[in-house]
Design a protein that fits this description.
- By secondary structure, this protein is α/β, with parallel strands linked by helices.
- The chain folds into two domains: 168 residues, Rossmann fold (3-Layer(aba) Sandwich); 135 residues, no CATH class.
- The chain has a five-stranded parallel β-sheet, with helices on both faces.
- The longest helix is centred in the middle third of the chain and has 78 residues.
- It starts with a helix and ends with a helix.
């Protein structure tokens, strides 16, 4: 069949539909649905648009229908309002732009749109036409019985199918968004966990460094004194106290490069911090009182405590 013959068939079918509708417009549909939907209908035949609009209102009384006789006007409207449109119904044969061309332009605006195209052509003929891939549903006028009773049923089937597809698309998009947000939260938690691990590693290193410094700078000198059997009981008491604070930062802080304490000054600091009096320190280290005071003055100077009313014992305990 040639295109001219198909055009004549389409026009003849429209005339027959209009005649049947005008003869008995009220028996088209008997059931209603409450869906609030927004519909675009495009057909250059005013009488068929009236038929279509009648069926839409009967099927969906609360629907918001926008009727166009010019496909260009319909396309402009769709471009401005496509986010709010639920259903698009277009006729095949129209001036300036046929139904397939209009469908293709609509898909360029919104690739997820689902379109019903009405035609008198057979399905086999339509799917061979250029641009047929832009249409998901073909409503063939040749499928309608003479009484038009099945017309609303066919239309309702396609409309419900499209609404179901769009609803599932929206659910999928919502699920994708929720999944993205969940992934984002997990990434934030992972980042926080990695930061926590980093801090744990730093603290672990700090503890190891503290132990190392306490052993090297505080415990080993005491053990050396004990081995030399010089006043062992006092050194054992000091050793016991240092073991109890093995992980403290005291050994690390008093050996920082900025302080530049001598080994003797380190010994004195350790003893002061652990509560030994000046006389006890002097006896243990075989120092005169004046020499010990010189050491204390140098220690205060190196810690920046000169001319400050800060007790050296309290300061060392706070480190």
């Amino acid at each position: 069949m040639t295109i001219d013959e198909l055009n004549k068939t389409d026009k003849l079918k429209n005339i027959q539909l209009k005649k049947r509708f005008m003869e008995n417009p009220e028996n088209i549909v008997e059931h209603k649905h409450p869906e609030k939907i927004k519909i675009i209908m495009v057909d250059d035949d005013p009488a068929f648009l009236k038929l279509l609009s009648h069926n839409i209102k009967k099927l969906y009384p609360s629907s918001d229908a926008h009727i166009f006789g010019n496909p260009v006007d319909a396309l402009n409207f769709y471009s401005d309002n496509y986010r709010d449109i639920d259903i698009v119904i277009v006729d095949m044969l129209m001036p300036n732009m046929n139904g397939l061309e209009l469908s293709r332009e609509i898909k360029n605006i919104n690739k997820n749109e689902r379109i019903i195209l009405m035609t008198a052509y057979s399905l086999d003929t339509m799917i061979k036409e250029k641009g047929a891939e832009a249409v998901e549903f073909f409503l063939s006028k040749t499928q309608m019985d003479p009484s038009l009773k099945n017309f609303p049923l066919l239309l309702d089937f396609y409309v419900k199918k499209i609404l179901w597809i769009k609803d599932n698309q929206n659910k999928f998009q919502k699920a994708q968004k929720e999944l993205h947000e969940h992934h984002k939260v997990l990434e934030q938690k992972n980042a926080a966990f990695r930061e926590l691990l980093r801090h744990i590693e730093l603290e672990k290193k700090e503890i190891i460094d503290n132990v190392k410094n306490n052993v090297e700078n505080l415990l080993l000198p005491l053990l050396a004194k004990i081995e030399a059997k010089e006043k062992s009981s006092q050194y054992i008491k000091l050793l016991n106290k240092n073991l109890q604070s093995l992980t403290s930062s005291f050994g690390s802080k008093i050996t920082e490069k900025e302080t530049r304490l001598t080994p003797r000054e380190l010994e004195i600091c350790n003893m002061i911090k652990n509560g030994l009096l000046s006389k006890e320190i002097a006896d243990l280290l075989n120092l005169t009182h004046r020499t010990l005071e010189t050491h204390r003055t140098n220690i205060r100077k190196k810690f920046g405590l000169t001319q400050k009313k800060v007790n050296l014992t309290s300061f060392l305990k706070s480190i």
